[in-house]
Amino acid sequence: MTAPRAARRDSAPGNDLPVVARERGQRHVFCGLAGIVWLHRKIQDAFFLVIGSRTCAHLLQSAAGVMIFAEPRFATAILQERDLAGLADCNQELDRVVGEVLDRRPDLGTLFLVGSCPSEVIKLDLAKAAERLSVVYRGRVRIIDYSASGLETTFTQGEDACLKALVPELPPLPQGERSLLVVGTLPDVVEDQFGRLFAELGISPVSFLPPRHTADFPPLGSGTSVLLAQPFLGESARACLARGARLLSAPYPFGIEGTLGWLRAAADDWGVSPAVFDAAMAPAVARAERGLAHQRAMLAGKRISFLPDSQLEIPLARFLHRECGMELVEVATPYLDRQLMMDELALLPSGVRLTEGQDLDRQLDRVRSDRPDITVCGLGLANPLEAEGLRTKWSIELVFTPVHGFDQAADLAELFARPLRRDALLRI
Ligand code: SF4
After folding, report:
1. Given this model, what pLDDT does residue 1 score?
2. If you take atom 7 of ligand 1, which residue's CA is the nearest one?
3. Which domain holds residue 270?
4. pLDDT confidence tier of residue 62, bands split at 50, 70 and 90
5. How far is the CA of 194 from the centre of ligand 1 (A)?
6. Tell me, what DSSP letter sits at residue 401?
7. Residue 94: which CATH number?
8. Residue 273, burial from CB neighbour count under 10 angstroms (0-12, 13-18, 19+)
9. Would the pTM count as exceeding 0.90?
10. Does 67 or 125 have the greater pLDDT score?
11. How many angstroms from the chain centroid is the CA of residue 404?
């Protein structure tokens, strides 16, 4: 999409925080529909019904192509030309499709009606549709709407919109009780690892949003402390705050340092002593350090550029620089939410080239002139850059792969080391 060009430089609040250059121009990003791929894997009794066009259906099918053998829990109700021209009653058709889905899948706990660019263009009111259908299917299935439209978003915002839509559904936490709520989709294996670490620290009760089953919606209230597992969940965080919860400030759990800082934020909130914290963390930290050493040998001194895509760029850059010894050439992010990123910004090296937003042509010019050892970018840019002899890493892979926590720190580094290793082999 295109917007007026502008670039300006802005100092981050605080003395030592990096300067941010802002760019506005042509962007190259996936839309929020991509989030359905990892959300539907996580919420095992949810179905995602996209109300969109053939383009939406193609995007979803290609993004989720790896799961072709599983019975999918997502589909696209395709708007036809008559719908787009306002000649048909889309609501009637939507009710029919929802009825079909629910007849075929009586096991569903939640049905998401997912808005797209076409449904927004024809102003199909999915909130009203969800309300109407909720009355019809009350007691049988929960029906929730959210928008994954790609007009002004980036692909991880689909998860933010989905989780924000779940927040009003969470039951109230009884007065006087407290809880820790981890917000952000984590693979089950990672969620279990964190669950064990919280238990060792004596932090309880801990719940996760989204849950694995929608019958297990976690409670939320003024006694809830929220810890974000992903840096792109600003709207969901603000929806939790509006319900009285508190947001814990922390770096994100990527790498040893980020994971330690993230868990420490919860431990401090619960009054866990530093000695208990250190003792509980020591075995996992030692394991992670052993795993990272091998990857660090490959990554140290290598130069990396991030193009703005996933909103994971800043925490990953911090990890790759501070724990793997990589040189940050440019760190670009689609949006910079200073409140959510404060702890991460403070850990970036001074003088780092930090960019918010995108002007694609100018950014590609910079990549060509910088010629970093590796460029992290969207799928559509990777092949052209590879053809120019630049090594790339798909940013979407960083959302699909288990990369959070101590036990995944080496795997996360390996994702960046692999293209360099392959390149080294090809050069022999
Ligand atoms: S929601 Fe919009 S950007 Fe996404 S696939 Fe559909 S038409 Fe394209």
Report:
1. 35
2. 117
3. 179-278
4. confident
5. 35
6. S
7. 3.40.50.1980
8. exposed
9. yes
10. 125
11. 12
